[in-house]
């Protein structure tokens, strides 16, 4: 029997990793393999996935709808040769990926014999301005979806969920829309019992030219950072950022990893796991529109955060 695939898409900072984390943490004995694609050279998302070990495969420094297309197919082939095979495979795309192109890749006859795309889930920040759904990439992410999960409802404010549902309907999106409080989505929606392999392969249109719209810049340091200086640096960079995320140690709390997230103008910090052996003590990925942020400017701003800088 073919292994079902769940494709998780959504724009930068929508909350995809939170959804995947919740699914893995509530696997109820199922063997779930996760393929995590990050746009930057450092795959922060793979480190944040619960139980990131042999079950999580990292694809970094590119997008699986274009430059990493071959890597995705090779990764799936490797996962399907495992003994025992995974019960299901979750693919988390980068926020800049066009899922229509990924669906086309998953129709590869070699993969299709052993694994079948079961569900496309689009995670959407409920606080996203409705006008943003007119963006071509976000439209593609929504229109290929079977399920749209509204995330960050606790941050979006009263009525945001209702407004977003109305905006999705205005786009004539046929998907089922559900609330995803803290990343929770009923597994029965994602993997309907007995549904795998019962449907015909999905129809896909012609491949569209790739549009280079975003770039990812990484900054690492083997030294801890000053938290007040880092906060000042992020405030300075924020107007130019589409997304940022990272792991770091602070001068104020040495030996403790902090998780940094910046999306939709909001920055958050949370305690992380123990430092990863051999990894830089500070590693942050910044994603911006092409030409908005230079590496020289980023390095200048961030070097001021380093202890002694």
Structure at a glance:
The chain has 309 residues and is α/β, with parallel strands linked by helices. The protein is 28% helix and 25% strand.
Features:
Rossmann fold, 309 residues, 11 helices, Hypothetical Protein Yjia, Chain: A,domain 2, 5-stranded antiparallel β-sheet, alpha/beta, 12 strands
Task: Write a structural description.
- There is one protein chain.
- The protein starts with a strand and ends in a 6-residue tail after the last helix.
- With 309 residues, it is α/β, with parallel strands linked by helices.
- It is globular, with a radius of gyration of 19 Å.
- The protein folds into 2 domains: 3-190, Rossmann fold, CATH 3.40.50; 214-303, Hypothetical Protein Yjia, Chain: A,domain 2, CATH 3.30.1220.10.
- Helix content is 28%, strand content 25%.
- 41% of the residues are buried.
- The protein has helices at residues 16-25, 44-48, 69-80, 99-106, 109-112, 136-143, 153-156, 160-170, 187-190, 227-237, 295-303, and strands at 3-9, 32-37, 56-59, 88-92, 115-125, 147-151, 176-179, 214-221, 243-249, 257-263, 266-271, 282-289.
- The protein is built from 11 helices and 12 strands.
- The strands form 2 sheets. Strands 3-2-4-1-5-6-7 form a 7-stranded parallel sheet, with helices on both faces. A 5-stranded antiparallel sheet has the order 8-12-9-10-11, covered by helices on one side.
- Pfam families: cobW, CobW_C.
- Zinc chaperone that directly transfers zinc cofactor to target proteins, thereby activating them. Zinc is transferred from the CXCC motif in the GTPase domain to the zinc binding site in target proteins in a process requiring GTP hydrolysis.
């Amino acid at each position: 029997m073919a292994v079902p695939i769940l494709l998780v898409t959504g724009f930068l900072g929508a909350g995809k990793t939170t959804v995947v984390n919740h699914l893995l943490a509530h696997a109820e004995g199922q063997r779930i393999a996760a393929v995590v694609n990050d746009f930057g050279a450092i795959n922060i998302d793979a480190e944040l996935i619960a139980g990131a070990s042999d079950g999580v495969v990292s694809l970094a420094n590119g997008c699986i709808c274009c430059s990493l297309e071959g890597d995705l197919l090779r990764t799936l082939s490797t996962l399907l040769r495992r003994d025992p095979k995974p019960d299901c495979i979750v693919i988390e795309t980068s926020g800049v990926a066009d899922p229509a192109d990924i669906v086309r890749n998953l129709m590869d006859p070699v993969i299709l014999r052993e694994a079948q795309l079961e569900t496309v889930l689009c995670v959407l920040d409920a606080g996203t301005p409705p006008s943003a759904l007119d963006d071509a990439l976000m439209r593609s992410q929504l229109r290929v979806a079977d399920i749209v999960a509204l995330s960050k409802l606790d941050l979006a404010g009263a009525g945001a969920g209702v407004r977003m549902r109305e905006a999705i309907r205005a786009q004539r999106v046929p998907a089922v829309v559900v609330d995803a409080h803290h990343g929770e989505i009923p597994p029965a929606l994602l993997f309907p019992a007995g549904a795998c392999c019962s449907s015909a392969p999905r129809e896909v249109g012609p491949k569209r030219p790739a549009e280079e719209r975003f770039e990812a810049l990484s900054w690492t340091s083997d030294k801890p950072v000053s938290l007040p200086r880092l906060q000042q640096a992020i405030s300075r960079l924020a107007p130019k950022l589409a997304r940022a995320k990272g792991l770091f140690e602070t001068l104020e709390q040495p030996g403790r990893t902090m998780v940094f997230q910046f999306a939709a103008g909001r920055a958050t910090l949370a305690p992380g796991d123990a430092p990863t052996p051999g990894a830089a003590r500070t590693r942050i990925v910044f994603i911006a529109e092409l030409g908005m942020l230079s590496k020289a400017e980023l390095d200048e701003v961030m070097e001021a955060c380093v202890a002694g800088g």
